Amino acid sequence: MTSPAETAHSDIVLDRLMSLHPKIIDLTLDRMTRLLDALGNPERHLPPVIHIAGTNGKGSTQAMIRAGLEAQGSAVHAYTSPHLARFHERIRVAGDLISEEDLIKTLEACETANGDTPITYFEITTCAALLAFANTPADYTLLEVGLGGRLDATNVIDKPEVCVITPVSIDHEQYLGDTLGKIAFEKAGILKRNTFGVVGPQEDEALEVIERQAAKVGATLKIHGQHWHVWEENGRLLYQDENGLWDLPMPALIGSHQVQNAGAAIATLRILGVSEDAASDAMTKAAWPARLQHLRHGPLVETAEQCELWLDGGHNPAAGKALSEALDRLPQRPLHMITGMLNTKDATGYLRPLADKAVSLQGVSIPGEAATLSAAETVEAARSVGMDATVADSVQEAIETIKARDAAARILICGSLYLAGRVLRENG
Fold first, then answer.
1. Where are the domains of the chain?
2. Which stretches within 197-275 are classed as H helix?
3. DSSP E strands: which ranges in 85-235?
4. pLDDT at residue 172, as a whole number
5. How far apart are CA 200 and CA 303, in angstroms?
6. 222/149 Cα distance (integer angstroms)
7. pTM, whole model, 2 decimals?
8. Distance of CA 421 to the CA centre of its chain
9. What does CATH list as the number for 4-285?
10. Which intervals hold domain Mur ligase C-terminal (predicted)?
11. 53 has which bridge partners?
């Protein structure tokens, strides 16, 4: 456990790094290659890399791959974003969250090497993660793309062991393009010559682009529905490819979309030579916070009393659809939603698949986020799809309101990873 003073130290360094470039997102690799060169190119000294891109399911797929590799005794580095409660969550070094001491050391090494040259927060913190990984022995490195793929800060690995592309859908149009094909082109930019590319379920427009890019660079694809198949049968997960059939437990992560994510994870583990027993552990031991997470302890749970409290960080129309289906798998109970979203997201598209599931919705603003959608705007989006929606000043107030209305409610806090992180911090 780090002390408050230590935590404050890393926060101070992170705040300094935030000021180095006026743009939060600026897609190019020039600044990354410059700083990595100055650091001695740590990206060239990593254990075999599994690189994961896609619109939805990247984090869950990574969590299952990591659980499978660790089940066979491998030490695994893992990089993901954004964090929920603490920045340290982004960097897992040989299985453990990076220590406060090592985080400060690597951040300050990157800060010194960079000087005052402009570089985005995500770029310099990605360099810090790569430096931490290069300095610690491990068997594998899992890298989750931050945004897109082709020009993402993580796309500096010349020859990854496996590239994974989870389902592609419309999101971040202002950065990646306004069609599925354009977005798929950016995601497919992680594919490299003479490497395997595991491709999750895709719409035809996206798959055509991914296949074209793979042919161009010389990557060998393993495509869902062609080279591997996954399905649920009698409460079990069945996975089939050219090497045979595996009969596995269902994923601990809830929802049919997690079946597809599990398939991509298993296809990757098969390429890496993981056993069926380890793949079973990948299904049962993977954990991924804020993906339909049942909160069972903490101050907010105590406030909810007899109400169930759930948390989900999905935030686009595809995530809304997946969440709707996953809710159908839970025992029946009246659903009340507490929703906060960013103003860069399609709130109406996200809420539409959930409209007939919820008795009510409480709209909240996300505290501390400049890009939050106002509570009133969230309520307006909810009402436009037929939901009974009202404004709440806070998550705490919303829980109290719902509890007074229905003491046996299922309360779902949802709409943004930033809101989810805030809730996890408030809930201890």
1. 4-285, 293-426
2. 204-217, 256-271
3. 91-93, 96-97, 140-144, 162-165, 196-199, 220-223, 228-233
4. 66
5. 40
6. 18
7. 0.86
8. 13
9. 3.40.1190.10
10. 301-416
11. 165
Cβ 162 vs Cβ 198: under 8 Å: yes
159 three-state secondary structure = coil
| Segment (H or E) for 31 | helix 30-38
DSSP labels, 349-388: HHHGGGTTTEEEEEE---TT-TTBPPHHHHHHHHHHTT--
Q: SS in 3 state form for 127-142?
A: HHHHHHHHCCCCCEEE
Q: Number of C-alpha atoms within 13 angstroms, CB side, residue 264?
A: 31
Residue at token pair 């709130």 = 347
Q: Using CB atoms within 10 A of its CB, is residue 352 exposed (0-12), middle (13-18) or buried (19+)?
A: buried
Tokens of 27: 């897609």
> What residues are paired with 52 via a beta bridge?
144, 164
Element containing residue 411 per DSSP (H, E)? strand 410-414
pLDDT for position 159: 95
Q: What is the pLDDT of residue 22?
A: 61
* pLDDT at residue 318, rounded to an integer: 86
Contact 331, 364 (CB under 8 A): no
Residue 5 is predicted with a pLDDT of 41
Distance from chain centroid for Cα 311: 14
Dist. CA 280–CA 263, nearest whole Å: 12
Domain 293-426, what fold?
Protein-Tyrosine Phosphatase; Chain A (3.90.190)
Residues 6+ apart with CB under 8 A from 264: 57, 61, 164, 166, 198, 199, 200, 224
From 150, 154, 181, 155, select the one nearest 168 (Cα to Cα): 181
CA 428/CA 420 separation, integer angstroms: 12
Minimal CA–CA distance to 283: which of 236, 243, 329, 324? 236
Q: Rounded to whole angstroms, how far apart are CA atoms 207 and 4? A: 48
Express each pLDDT in 263-315 by its tens digit.
Answer: 999 999 999 999 999 999 999 999 888 889 999 999 999 999 999 999 999 98
Residue ranges, the chain, pLDDT below 70: 1-8, 21-25, 172-175
